[in-house]
Amino acid sequence: MSRFFERYEAETAQFFDEVISKEGAPRPHYDKMLHRFGQFSIDDIKARREIVNIFFRNQGITFTVYGEDEGVERLFPFDLIPRVLPAHEWQSIEKGLIQRITALNAFLNDIYHDQKILKDKVIPAELILGSQHFRREFVGINPPLGIYIHVTGSDIIRDGQGHYMVLEDNLRTPSGVSYMLQNRQAMKRAFPVLFDKYKIRPIENYPQELLRTLQEIGPGSRREPNVVVLTPGIYNSAYFEHSFLARQMGVELTEGKDLVVNNNKVYTRTTRGLELVDVIYRRVDDAFLDPLVFRPDSKLGVAGLVNAYRKGNVTLANAIGCGVADDKVIYSFVPKIIKYYLGEDPILQNVPTWLASNPADLKYILANLGSLVVKAANESGGYGMLIGPESTIEQQENFAEMIVANPRNYIAQPTISLSRHPSFFNDTELLGCHIDLRPYVLYGKTITIVPGGLTRVALKRGSLVVNSSQGGGSKDTWVVDE
Amino acid sequence: MLSRVAESLFWMSRYFERAENTARFLDVNFNLLLDLNKITHIENPSYWVALILVTSDKERFNSIYDEYTARTVTDYLVFNKNNPNSITSCIGLARENARSIIESISSEMWEQINNLYHYLQSVTPQFVHNDPYGFYKEIKNASHLFQGITDNTFSHNEGWDFIQIAKYLERTDNIARLIDVKYHMLLSEAQSQPELVEGSEDIIQWMAVLKSCSALEAFRKVYLSKIDPDNILRFLILDRTFPRSINFSVCAAEDALWRISGSSRHRYVNNADRLIGKLEAELSYTAIEDIFAKGLHNYLEDLEQRLVKVGEQVHLTYFAYHTPEIESSDIEEALPFTGIAGGRANWSQAQQHQQQQ
Questions:
Q1: Which of A124, A177, A264, A274 is the most buried (most CB within 10 A)?
Q2: Which of A439, A464, A459, A460 is nearest to A449 (CA)?
Q3: pLDDT of B340 strictly over 50
């Protein structure tokens, strides 16, 4: 084993380690990688780190940390050791995701039409109709091909036994796919020999697949639908990704002020006049899309856009109102949703979830605050969370009050120790860091998932939080054929 | 091309050129005062007030400073963030525009704007005071470098043409103002010391103007050493080959406008083309005597106003796109323009947007 891995402490008694098995031996799909890294000295690693940093800097893959006066641009943290997923494991993740996304789309289609699932009392109607993301004004609207969730990015974790589980379904505007693509480019530059040793499934076609999906959902009969990306603008933290995807697809990157609605049709303002738009890949939240319908103070949206959408003259990806299905309360019903629409058992498991709105569950939650993770149903990005084992009595009491006051808004889950993956700590030693996986699912005429996804890693000693807003980084993710 | 992208390219270029020209204004003044230090003090306020008169509005200056000195005027024109035309403000605005279309410009262009921006953040008034020549040279070189990078890394298509239009409209306007600086100073001296106007100091002043346009050597190649005001004005206004002359700049702006619209010499398709074509034709058939007959100051002021009209029409035609179905107002009447008297501070991106609303 290599000098880096000799000193690596996997702590397999406590955690599921992606590289080292319980018996202390490397898992077979990591053999060649360990061998290759064994040939590297610390200087080799530093040299490769430099190649990667220069690549990211030249590509402009930085995010801005705003201080007092001037913004400071930092590189997005990236770990040099790739994550390897054997093909057979990926195959079941892929199957599970296709099943899950198909069912969730059927669920949205039902909720916005006949609401059979509510009439059959599989899900309590008040949970849906009372959700702040349920858009009753879109009941009866038919998006092309009946698809609501064109681009999704479910968060998948592995528990202490190594079982893959879905932690969250991100059905609105999941970000990070540009990092997935850039990570692969960076790895190719820094470790070309390693690529030669594995049969790694390519992911570079993601922008083409995204464009194909967006063209397939065009509203009319135009053979080449005009697709644009809609961004909130340069001050959005994901602006790099919006501009990157537009460039890769070869379509226009637009802001709200570039679009104009006339006679219920959407146009871009160009130097040659107005050009009809068929499909908008929008990275703007529902609430900001159209000041005439949603928030009147929004400067990010386009006045009249929602009417154009209701008339079927333009397709929005994703559709308006998808948030109702990625609510953390609805999440707990996904196994039932899969059973209801597909008659199948879920391939990918949920994390066990207690609903505070259910009296029996509420009792359990309040009695076990010290060992559970409590989450607000509508927050994301690691906000509004209580991590029981790390909390003080005072924090627990605060949360207990909030939960009792508004039970619909809270769920609780057991504290899961995410699987760990050796990652470089200061380029000199390896540390087991917690990881998750976000594969990107495209839903057009068919469902396409580029193999792998973005592996996020908590690059802080002991930290469980992988969100980039909380100091997380990422690593390249390889699906390899044996 | 999206109107917003075209507009940002236009203003990125225009603000950059404006910063360069402000550096040239200040540079000419320092040159002048150094050359004239036998007869006047470097802090002679009449030399400095002239700069404020032609580059920006006097009221804003007076609300910030009490007197016209090398230090206050330099501070106002180089550093002041409340002056939208200060070099720092202009580069900041150019960078903001570039940032919003970062996927459309080349990364080298962005890098150059960004470098200059950060350089300006690090410069102190004391530094400029100690080495004005070095500082202004830095600004001018940064601008030249940006133009060279743009020419060599950015496709010469519609977007490039918008960059050219902006650059040459701004430059024409600024050459006219630079000549006006000289005019103002002549005027104020004629009032206080009438005997000086016709003397050799006059020639020294005109030479400083030429130097500030990087035009002294080019001028000598044409007129040898016959440095008299007629020849100098003929060169700066009417020469068709020197890139910092008015005629050259108008021709270049016209070429770019016509490439975008497909207009040709005998057929125009929009008002921007028509106005620039008219201006170019007049310049081609104007002799320096015609300009004197009209009065130099009046001629320049008229020219500046016509440039503003061209800018307005570029905005209406390409950036503030109106369709007849949406707004039926006649294009020519769509935006009444509200005067130029105070100098170029009246013409900025923010103002155009305000007018649009």
A1: A177
A2: A439
A3: no
Q: Where are the domains of chain B?
A: 3-324
Mind listing the pLDDT tens digit for each residue in A379-437?
655 567 888 888 888 989 988 998 998 888 899 999 888 899 999 877 778 889 999 99
Chain B residues in contact with A251 (beta carbon < 8 A): none
Angle at A330 between CA A329 and CA A333, to 5 degrees: 110
In whole angstroms, give the CA distance from residue A149 to residue A322.
7
Give how far A153 is from chain B: nearest CA, Å: 25
Considering only CB atoms, A270 lies closest to which of B2, B99, B100, namely B2
CA distance A349 to A327: 17
| Residues of A engaging B, defined by a Cβ cutoff of 8 Å | 58, 60, 70, 233-234, 243-244, 246-247, 252-255, 257-258, 260, 262-263, 268-274
- The rounded distance, in Å, linking the Cα atoms of B243 and B189 is 31
Q: Would you list which residues of chain B are within 8 Å, Cβ to Cβ, of chain A?
A: 1-4, 6, 99-100, 102-103, 107, 121, 158, 260, 318-319, 321, 323, 325-326
Is pLDDT of B176 > 70? yes
For residue B2, give the 3-state DSSP assignment.
strand
Q: Is the dihedral of CA B264, B270, B272, B274 positive or negative?
A: positive
Query: How far, in Å, CA of A248 to CA of A240, rounded?
Result: 12
pLDDT value at residue A456:
93
- CA–CA distance, B130 with B120 (Å, rounded to integer): 16
CATH topology of domain A352-414: Dna Ligase; domain 1 (3.30.1490)
Q: Which ipTM score applies to this complex?
A: 0.73
Mutation for testing the A interface, residue in B1, B3, B259 having most A CBs under 10 Å: B3
Which CATH number, 3.40.50.11290, 3.30.300.10, 3.40.50.1820, 1.10.600.10, labels domain A96-162+201-342?
A: 3.40.50.11290
Q: Are strands A279-282 and A273-276 parallel, antiparallel or unpaired?
A: unpaired
| Alpha-carbon separation of residue A363 from A330, A331, A367 (angstroms) | 20, 20, 6
Chain A closest-CA separation from residue B349 CA (Å): 16
Query: How many whole angstroms separate alpha carbon A175 and alpha carbon A469?
Result: 12
Q: Point out the residue among A234, A243, A262 whose CB comes nearest to the CB of B326.
A: A262
Mean pLDDT for chain B overall: 82
At A105, which amino acid appears? N
Rounded to 10 degrees, what is the CA torsion of B204, B208, B209, B210? 100
For residue A257, which residues of chain B lie inside 8 Å, CB to CB?
Answer: 4
Q: Which residues in chain B touch residue A60, judged by CB atoms under 8 angstroms apart?
A: 102, 107
Instruction: List Cα–Cα distances, B303 to A79, A106, A154, B316, B335, in angstroms.
Output: 60, 67, 62, 20, 20
- CB–CB of A101/A447 below 8 Å? yes
Question: Is residue A463 predicted with pLDDT exceeding 80?
Answer: no
The residue type at B113: I
Write out pLDDT tens, residues A14-55. Answer: 889 999 999 888 999 999 998 888 888 889 999 999 999 888
Residue A384 gets the label, from left (phi > 0), alpha (psi -120 to 50) or beta, of left
Domain boundaries, chain A: 96-162+201-342, 352-414
- Give the CA radius of gyration of chain A: 23
Q: Residue A309: which of A301, B157, A34, B155 has the closest Cα?
A: A301
